Amino acid sequence: MKTKILFFVGNVLLIGWTFAQTPTEKQHNNPIFDGWYADPEGIVFGDTYWVYPTFSDDYDKQLHFDAFSSKDLVHWEKHERILDTTKIKWLRQALWAPSIIGKDEKYYLFFGANDIQRPGRDGYDPNNDINHFGGIGVAVANSPSGPFEDLLGKPLISEFHNNAQPIDQFVFEDEGTYYFFYGGWSHCNLGRLNADFTGFLPWEDGNLFKEVTPEGYVEGPFMFKRNGIYYFMWSEGGWTNGSYKVAYAMADKPTGPYKRIGTILESKEGDIATGAGHHSVIRKPGTDEWIIVYHRRPIPNLDRDHRVTCMDKMEFNTDGTIKPVKMTFEGVGNP
Asked: Residue 72 pLDDT more than 50?
């Protein structure tokens, strides 16, 4: 009898511990959906939140995009293979970092493909042409869920302007102008899309792109506007490790100039994850509540591409600067 009581108590204690440690929907919303996903772009279309991430895997397997939608930031519907190699004939590896915008009842999805390299870079192999051609492409659909079709049948940008690798694009609309930020290899370019998104309008000097690289920039540009202030944001550090982080600048116009203010999202000792970066920002419609959408590496992390997509609150100081973001398991889906 004594043994049975002890056994029973032990089970009660075990069950109690297990229950206390098990995530519940109300307590744990990060990561926001299952699977290895990175470089998320969050956006609101109508009454629905959307997230478009990179499918995080080896380059030769990273050949499609999934999208996710939600009405409440808690329950997410997966829209599989909204774009893949059957639609992008020039894609051979490394489809990544999608960016989307709506215009004239259509939806335009921009993406990087093939991890294009050039002579002089460590990643360039003259005997393997898989990444000799590629860059930033654009696809179009009648719905945010696709299916998307390749708009041009070739990259929108395939050349190296101002030493920027043509990846990591973001489209920002302001007063009818569609600004196009992009660039890896620590260089950021800015262009202006033409009316049908098939090319770019030249700047006053005749060039299609001007370099706008702020101090510390590595990749992943993003912009939003709040109270008349333009916030230009980017990722610093190395995407393969814990040094990855998000920094930002503020300006009175989308073309800058941008002076780095500081970092707002980075992993520190004791944090719940590492390598937080390549983010986007969502404003809850009709409010001044803001959400940062980003990827991070769970602890422990056993693979370069084990990244998950998360959301946390992003808040501001009275002077308009951004407060440091705290990574959480709770996320933003509940009060």
From this structure: yes
**pLDDT on residue 283:** 98
Residue 108 falls in which region: left (phi positive, over 0), alpha (psi -120 to 50) or beta:
beta
Mean pLDDT over each residue of the chain, to the nearest integer: 92
CA dihedral 171, 172, 174, 179 (to 10 degrees): -50
Question: Which residues are identified as catalytic?
Answer: 39, 219
**Which residues lie closer than 8 Å to 283 by C-beta, 6 or more apart?**
44, 224, 226, 289, 290, 291
Distance CA 52, CA 107 (A): 13
Identify the DSSP state of 89. Answer: T
Residues 29, 334 contacting (CB under 8 angstroms): yes
**Could you tell me if 194 and 201 are in contact, meaning their C-beta atoms sit under 8 angstroms apart?**
yes
* Statement: residue 217 has pLDDT above 80: yes
Helix boundaries (H) for the chain: 2-21
Residues 6+ apart with CB under 8 A from 200: 180, 191, 192, 193, 194, 208, 209
Question: Angle at Cα 309 formed by Cα 181 and Cα 149, nearest 5°?
Answer: 55
187, 211 contact by CB (below 8 A): yes
Are the CB atoms for 314 and 290 separated by under 8 Å?
Answer: yes
Q: What are the beta bridge partners of residue 294?
A: 310
Q: What is the enclosing helix (H) or strand (E) of 292? A: strand 290-298
**Which long-range contacts link 230-239 to residues 24+ away (Cβ below 8 Å)?**
230/174, 230/254, 231/281, 231/322, 232/181, 232/256, 232/258, 233/279, 233/281, 234/188, 235/277, 235/278, 235/279, 236/263, 236/277, 237/266, 237/275, 237/277, 239/275, 239/277, 239/278
The rounded Cα 85 to chain-centroid distance in angstroms is 21
Q: How many CB atoms lie within 10 A of CB 162?
A: 15
| pLDDT on residue 334 | 61
Instruction: Find tokens 């390549």 and name the residue.
Output: 278
Instruction: Write b or e for each residue in 305-319: b if 16 or more Cβ atoms lie within 10 A of its Cβ, otherwise e.
Output: bebbbbbbebeeeee
